[in-house]
């Protein structure tokens, strides 16, 4: 039986990843230019050395077991590290980076980027440029995960990230748009959440891993704020008419007090002395939400 360290060679890790991506040993063998029986034997050798099953073969598709999923996650990191070592060795020998990967956000115009690449190659440098297109937080994720050396179009707050050097590139304004014939095109502005809710919203996909991108964050933020505001904050039904948990949510939800203030100011011409009891919950909610966001925010590692 081969030693586990010998079984986890770069070639074998690549084979495991290819089988997982193709979904079957036969398809992976065709892609790798191998005989299916030879590929099956190699996979069996790795499984025997680790004394685990990497694939569930009870169905027609080769599905990774939990052990196989863990090996695949670790192998992606190991293969990137091996590539990085090879690049560092060549950089030390020549003084040039053998390869430079640029992650450009989709908002970056391609024409000037290609012009810059053309000017770089005019220097006759031995460095090979690789370009990859990312979207939203996927651009920063590519840089932090080591998949890119330079990121263009990253959205950063003022604090930045330790270990990263950044420069201001410009500003991009995101706006909510509809077609001329859409029902919302003639709706009074500003559009309210209740007016937008019945319609389908199309947004650009975040290229960060699932659950870690800005789209996922905005989606959960929208669900967590829009639904209580519409259902319990008095936008449709008065809070006083609710019962049970709905009444409790309506009483403490900040949007309920914001609606009271808005109606009081614009519909009834009430002043601060009349509405001060609704301002107090908002003053308490603002620092509470801010502190909770800071404590729950997962720190990024450079």
List its salient traits.
single chain, 302 residues, mainly alpha, Arc Repressor Mutant, subunit A, three-stranded parallel beta sheet, two-stranded antiparallel sheet, 5 strands, extended
**How much of the residues is beta strand, in percent?**
5-15%
What gyration radius follows from the Cα positions, in whole Å? 27 Å
Structural class, from secondary structure content? mainly alpha
Low-pLDDT segments: none
Shape designation: extended
Total beta strand runs: 5
Largest sheet: 3 strands, parallel
Looking across the biggest beta sheet, what order are the strands in? 4-3-5
Measured distance between first and last alpha carbons: 40 Å
Chain-averaged pLDDT? 80
Number of helices: 12
Oligomeric grouping of the chains = single chain
SSE string:
HHHHEEHEHEHEHHHHH
Helix content: 40-55%
């Amino acid at each position: 039986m081969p030693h586990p360290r010998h079984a986890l060679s770069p070639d074998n890790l690549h084979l495991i990843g290819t089988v997982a991506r193709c979904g079957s040993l036969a398809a992976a063998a065709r892609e790798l230019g191998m005989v299916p029986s030879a590929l099956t034997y190699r996979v069996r050798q790795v499984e025997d050395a680790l004394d685990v099953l990497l694939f569930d073969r009870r169905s027609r598709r080769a599905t990774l077991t939990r052990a196989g999923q863990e090996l695949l996650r670790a192998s992606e990191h190991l293969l990137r590290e091996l590539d990085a070592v090879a690049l560092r060795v060549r950089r030390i020998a020549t003084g040039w980076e053998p390869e430079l990967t640029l992650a450009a956000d989709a908002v970056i115009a391609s024409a000037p980027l290609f012009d810059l690449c053309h000017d770089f190659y005019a220097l006759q440098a031995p460095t090979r440029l690789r370009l990859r297109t990312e979207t939203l937080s996927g651009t920063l994720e590519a840089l932090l995960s080591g998949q890119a050396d330079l990121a263009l179009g990253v959205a950063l707050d003022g604090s930045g990230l330790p270990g990263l050097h950044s420069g201001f590139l410009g500003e991009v304004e995101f706006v909510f748009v509809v077609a001329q014939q859409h029902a919302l095109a003639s709706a009074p502005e500003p559009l309210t959440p209740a007016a937008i809710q019945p319609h389908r919203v199309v947004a650009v996909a975040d290229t960060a891993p699932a659950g870690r991108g800005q789209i996922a964050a905005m989606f959960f933020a929208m669900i967590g704020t829009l639904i209580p505001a519409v259902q319990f904050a008095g936008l449709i039904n008065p809070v006083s008419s609710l019962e049970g948990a709905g009444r409790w949510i309506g009483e403490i939800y900040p949007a309920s007090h914001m609606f009271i203030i808005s109606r009081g100011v614009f519909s009834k011409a009430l002043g601060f002395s009349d509405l001060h009891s609704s301002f107090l919950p908002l003053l308490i909610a603002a620092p509470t939400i801010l502190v909770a966001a800071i404590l729950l925010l997962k720190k990024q590692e450079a």
